[in-house]
Automatic annotation (TrEMBL), chains A, B:
SMART domains: HTH_ARSR (SM00418). The keyword DNA-binding applies. InterPro entries: ArsR-like_HTH, HTH_ArsR_DNA-bd_dom, WH-like_DNA-bd_sf, WH_DNA-bd_sf. This is DNA-binding transcriptional ArsR family regulator. Pfam families: HTH_20. Keywords: DNA-binding. GO terms for molecular function: DNA binding; DNA-binding transcription factor activity. It comes from Tunturiibacter gelidiferens. Residues 1-95 form the HTH arsR-type domain.
Amino acid sequence: MVELTVASLDSVFHALSDATRRAILRDVSREAKTVGQIAEPYNMSLAAVSKHLQVLERADLIRREKKGNFRMVQLNADNLRAAQEWLAYYETFWTGQLDALQNYLETAETPGEDVRNGNSGTGTEKG
Amino acid sequence: MVELTVASLDSVFHALSDATRRAILRDVSREAKTVGQIAEPYNMSLAAVSKHLQVLERADLIRREKKGNFRMVQLNADNLRAAQEWLAYYETFWTGQLDALQNYLETAETPGEDVRNGNSGTGTEKG
DNA sequence: GTTATATTCAACCGCATGGTTGAATTGACG
DNA sequence: CGTCAATTCAACCATGCGGTTGAATATAAC
């Protein structure tokens, strides 16, 4: 278990909600790259790409390491794992198509976040 | 393979980026519910919950069915599956921690979207 | 037919997003 | 040191988000 807080799941899924950022993740998963190398395929400003990287970094999906004049960007897949684990709960619904209530009873131990009654958004952010 | 377009992956991940919406998905996965039943645990207006449902519906993660005076909301997990498949690509990076380049060579057949050079956002939306 | 209930619509608000451009920072190098 | 290159910062803009409230719609119930 990766133990991701509500707020960081927010940031991870938000980071993934943009096609450019998903493509960047694919990119840096193949090999670590500089910001310039990452930006090259897209026709947007370097500053825009830099902002995308900030979003990815906020979600802790990439790490940036200063390497001389460059910044090497590399993937950090741990939070992706957390996202996938969140999604894994729903596997039963697309595989077996079991009755939802019965399925609930079977998997009732699944932790699952609780954001009811105003707890939303103010969850303790991961350190 | 679920064959989700770039734009709909956007909408799916966006829908998941809010804790309230994730909780709603969990909720309706256990059993189909009315909008009122869904809204009850949260201290926000019914209209706000209705908007959340619209976001989920835009991502095709729920289906709404008129049932008399109510609308029954039920889960549609197919697009969640697509999201999970997108994430599955990264499993190798959190399990083996292989060298990224080597991993790339091994998995080079993975389709992967391409949003470079202005193709972003204008992808053919799923019908 | 009128009224009550469930849900959505419309307008609005404050704030975040994704993009731009131009200036600032930081480090390599002649 | 001066300059160039890589990257970020700051200000700005248009748009979208998540929430509100109040009106509108649709169906049920009396």
